[in-house]
Amino acid sequence: MSEGPERDVPHVMFVLSGLTMGGAESQLTSLVEAEAPAAARWRVTVLTLTRARHPELAQRLERRGVRLVLVDRQAASFPRFFARLVRAMRAARPDVVHTLLSGSSGTWGRFAARLAGVPCVAHSDRSLEPVRTRLQAALEPWANRVTDAFFTNADAIAQRLAASGVPARRIAVVPNGVDLGRFAAADGAALRREWGVGATGLVVGYLGMLRPEKRPQLLLDALERMPEAERPARVVYAGDGALRAELEERVRRSPWAAEHVRFLGVRSDVPAFLAAIDVLVLTSDTEGLPNAVIEAMAAGRPVIATRVSDVPRLVTDNGYLVEPRDAAGLADALTRMLRLAPAERACLGAAGRARVERAFDLPVAAERFWQAHDQALAGRRAGR
What we know:
The structure is a single chain. This protein has helices at 23-33, 55-63, 78-92, 104-115, 134-145, 155-163, 180-184, 189-195, 217-225, 244-252, 255-260, 270-276, 291-298, 311-314, 327-339, 342-359, 362-381, and strands at residues 11-16, 43-48, 67-70, 96-100, 120-125, 149-152, 171-173, 203-207, 234-238, 261-265, 279-282, 303-306, 319-322. It is an alpha/beta fold. Strands 3-2-1-4-5-6-7 form a 7-stranded parallel sheet, sandwiched between helices. The protein has a 6-stranded parallel sheet with strand order 10-9-8-11-12-13, with helices on both faces. Helix 4 (104-115) links the parallel strand 4 (96-100) and strand 5. Helix 8 (189-195) crosses helix 12. The protein is globular, with a radius of gyration of 21 Å. Residues 1-5 have low confidence and may be disordered.
């Protein structure tokens, strides 16, 4: 990150479960890559607790001089794993350990950082309903007590943290950002040909992990409620996860879905994917500030999303909101969206693009992100 002597550059170690193509991991990679003045002042290490490592993300981080470290949670009993985690942090001697998401990374990462004597412990909380074990949930109040700074990407999450007893002065809301240039130049024509869709065929896209909290099956529930004549020419799921096999089996059992629904797996060509679809659907039960929606807005695509967390801040005049788990409401929103003239959908997409340009441009978001680290470390050093 910086060409100066390492001893003069603050060092942050990010702790993640794995380096998969998820929202938090992709966002972190983009923030590390961003040409932001504050970013150049930091040296970065990424420590993962599983071997999951997406080659593209790993290569992008390594090109920026980021050191990748593995302390495998599955390779040893808990005491040995935790001791190795503490030793890895002591050896790296970071000024800040920043854990991302709940679970092993958020719980054991914070305790290990404090035991390792790391000056500043930060944690990114990005969900209204964090996924963690019963033990991790029980330990959360103690983990919060050893945390100097909390970074969220949504006001709703900041409010949840404050309600749980976290002092407001320790919470910083740092919204996500997106590289606008990547999406403005994207072309989805080749993907549409691959999917067998003509210029006038309508494509509905889902972009995200296929996990229970994302409720990807809600889109299939909604489609089943729509007359076949009203359904899109193609429905494409970009992402992977625990529910994929179940969803694929459900699609195989439906003649219409078997012909029109495709599962594409994790995509590295997200701008082209979004350029190829006509509308993005977000079906989550819980969210923070979802990257998928911001990226769809950057691509000029209208959005239909569930009314959770800060999503209503994103989806206003650029699409429709529906209640969580409301298949009938989603079916109605899809019907209305697909009945719009192409020019009307284009107007919705243009409104979303304009909002992203004002508030979520990546260099601006990166400067906010790295300045928040500057402030957290300075506050800790001042004994706040």
